[in-house]
Amino acid sequence: MFKSSFIALALSLSCVALAQTEQLDAIEVREAKDFEYPLSRVVRDSVVKKEVLRKERVQHKNAVSLARAIDLEPGVQTTLTCANCGSQRVTLNGMRGENTTILLDGIPAYSSVSSFYGMEAIPMAGISSIEIMRGAGSSLTAPEAIGGVVNLVTERTDQNRFSYLVRGGERESFNQQFLGIYGSAKRGTLISAQTNQLGFFDEDDNGVAEASAQSQRAVFIKHDHRPSGRLKLSLRGGHQNLELLGGATQHLRSKTYPSTLADETSFENGDVRRSFNGKLEQISDWIRLKRMDGGGSFLYHFDGETNVKGAFSLAKQEQLSVYSHGYDYDNDDMFRFFDLKVNRVIGEDHLLTVGVDHRNEEMNSDSKFLYRVNDFYRDSFTFDTLGVYLQDEWFISDKDELNLVLRFDTMNVEWQDQRIDQNELKGSVFAPRIHYKRSHTDALSSRFSFGVGYRAPLTLFESQHGTNEEGFEIGIKEFERAETFTYTLNYEGPERSSAFSATLTQLRNMAYGDENEEPIRFRNASETMSVGTFNFLHVEKVTSNWTVESSFDWFRMPDSYKDKLPIAAQETRARFISDYHFGKNEFVATLNVIGRRDLRPYNYDKNYNVLTEDPDTFEDVPTSQKGQTAPMFYTVDLFLQRQMTERLKLLAGVTNLLDYTQTKAKESPLSWRIHQDHVHLDNRHIWGPVQGRVLYAGLNYQL
Amino acid sequence: MKVFLSLLVFSSGALAQTEFTGNIRGTNKPCALQVQQVYYVDNIEKPENLRADVKASLQNDEHLVSNAEEFFFTLRPASRANLFSGTAENKKDQLNVFTKEGAPAFESVVSYALKWWHVNHFHSAQCVNLKNVQE
After folding, report:
1. Chain A: residue nearest B82 by CA?
2. Which range marks the domain in which residue B27 is found?
């Protein structure tokens, strides 16, 4: 009985990854479980460890983009990679941002190029939950995924709903989210839209902002059609706009790059902590991102035992940018993905899936400074991959379940404008993935997994703060490859939920930019990087109206790996959340504690506060080295919500209540950085919050 | 860039060309200084009128555009003894030449410091251990 229900469920869910049709079924099942175990953060039925972040939690965080929504979730870090440009990258299990695969309703929809600024552009309007699967090969069939997979699950369309959320507050923060769904069992349409803006943060008042101002607009439309029990169709489209203005606090949209870079005369006494008195272009970054995407999927059941699924995804992203580092840079990135799979029940215990997917990406860039004034190699590439996979979901017994995927990809990258000996990388990768779940009791289970992920290093824009003003060269000989071993022990009960996981990722052929060469040459690291992650999460229902959540993360990485990261990673941290309901009110308090770190392995020893020039030798003489230890710090967020009427909620909150920023702790991100034989102004001495306290209030109206 | 500045007056007692070679400090990369002409402005032999047209050259694989491995300056006495300075025609590149104390100017050069404009920022290098190639 259990087995047959499993098969029926499995067939209707039909293995991971695909589209809204699957999500509909998945959510129906999940809701039943959520009712039983409201504290659960791990999807109970999934063999793959899948952590879920619900939209309510996103709202508690006052998060309006993916980058902010999943920051500080177990194993997740959103890292600001440069203070001026405002790039936020989502990292999983300590892997870099370009190693995170983003899915939209189970379909790959974001390229590695979009991982640079795009994470801040992904709106939260219309998103019902976010699934996080950490580790290489954590999603059974999703391609690449060295760090793991983040799946954005959009709202169901078999309902009628309308909601409008508006919030505004300090620092010019203003956010509106609109959601309208008109649907039935047969068909449904969803429209969501979002606008968001946030002003600068210049905590030391020296005229150089530590956090960029940003404005964002997004719209998303989805239509599902379910003409019969056999067929489900889904189509979606979206448009996103993001503008980031960094550095100068005068809202400068500099359309031309600075002809001279900032030097010691640009700051009072050559000290970056004092007033800036140079030209505004020397500190201003301006980035505008425009993205259009679309996609669709179908699911057709031939009979009770076999179905076929198909999905496609298209995305076009355009970036315009001018950097204080002295150059302009624009790019066009076109991303296409296609997947087709057949699922079939074999016997009573197996669900077999055979699939093929194809990804194509093409990126071209333009720059007056880099390509026309200078004749540097263009940052451009084409990338093609064709993958085939075979998956067996084996329901061994009531207590044991095994999923096995054999995945094989052929890949071809061509950097068209690299006029050196190597401008192409071809190869194939065999990526087996095994996930085993053992249910010790109804409440206690263990999961073991091993997976292989891979990635073709594509644009060096993805790894560094852009191609720098000297251009870059490709010296990549191998695809990146990673194997992840994970063990998870999970307890799910009505009063409490706990999850412990230990993960070891072995990253081979890590691509990095060698700054010792000029221009920067991108190459593969010769050593294998072993990165470990340990997490513990516990949710306790203290009383019927009070829930407490605590989590601890420990990231273990070798110095040779830290050396190649763009920004210092968090290494130890803890988080405590109290969610208390009283009357018509809900009050959520969050305490985040980030542990002390030694910053020297991250190359922060090259960062200084003061620059002078020796008049005899013309040597740049940096003094007053920036702090080489990031202290332990903590931040507090509060959220209060009151149900005024059946439809109307009033809300208020504060992010970073204690107004803790690294700048107020006397360490702004701005620095003089030693680079080979000279010193230049940089803004990557980042280890803590750069945005101070923001008080906000708003309302949420739902029909 | 092979334009010499301050060619208003030539000294009748100009020295013959002298060349010094050395290495860039901290590396084995070669560098050189060629003293092409030494003269006094208006033929008035006062220390402050002393001038020298020189060519500094160095090997720097990364931060030189191909046609700028040689830098031309007209040097004049700086604020202290044994130091001569010059600014190039582009108004950006600068050269400081340190001569041996007690020796006639430009007959014995010890080292020089060069600062040159590259794309949108400056680089600098010091050429040390300079020796007269004719000795």
Report:
1. A616
2. 18-132
Of A130-139, A438-447, A599-608, B121-130, where does mean pLDDT reach its minimum?
Answer: A130-139
- Identify from B24, B83, B120 which residue to disrupt to test chain A contact, counting A C-beta atoms within 10 A and taking the largest count: B120
Nearest CA in chain B to A258: B120
Q: With contact defined as beta carbons under 8 Å apart, do B73 and B87 qualify? A: yes
Percent of chain A residues topping a pLDDT of 90 = 73
Summarised one tens digit per residue, pLDDT across range B45-93 is: 898 899 999 999 987 655 555 444 789 999 999 988 899 999 999 999 9
Q: Under an 8 A CB cutoff, do A259 and B123 touch?
A: no
- Selecting from B61, B63, B126 the residue whose C-beta is nearest the C-beta of A617 gives B126
Q: Which of A3-7, A136-140, B19-23 has the lowest mean pLDDT?
A: A3-7
Contacts of B115 in chain A (CB under 8 A): 618
How many domains does one find in chain B?
1
Tokens at A417, concatenated: 């404008």
User: Which residues from chain B sit within 8 angstroms of residue A517, using beta carbons?
Assistant: 62
Contacts of A370 in chain B (CB under 8 A): none
ipTM of the predicted structure?
A: 0.83
Q: What contacts A589, CB < 8 A, 6 or more positions away?
A: A577, A578, A636, A637, A638, A639
Residue with tokens 């208003």: B8
A406 burial level (CB within 10 Å; 0-12, 13-18, 19+): middle
d(CA B101, CA A248): 49
Q: Do A619 and B122 touch (CB under 8 A)?
A: no
**Over 60: is that where the pLDDT of A436 sits?**
yes
Q: What domains are defined for chain A?
A: 2-379+388-396+404-568 (2.40.170.20)
| CB–CB contact A261 B120 (8 Å) | yes
**CA B117, CA A615: separation in Å to the nearest integer?**
16
Q: Which of residues 54-73 of B touch A (CB under 8 A)?
A: 61-63
Higher pLDDT, A16 or A489: A489
Most B CBs within 10 Å: which of A616, A620, A675, A681, as the mutation test of the B interface? A616
Is B115 within a domain? yes
Residue B85 located in a structural domain: yes
Mean pLDDT within A554-560: 97
Q: Is beta strand A607-613 parallel, antiparallel or unpaired with respect to A546-556?
A: unpaired
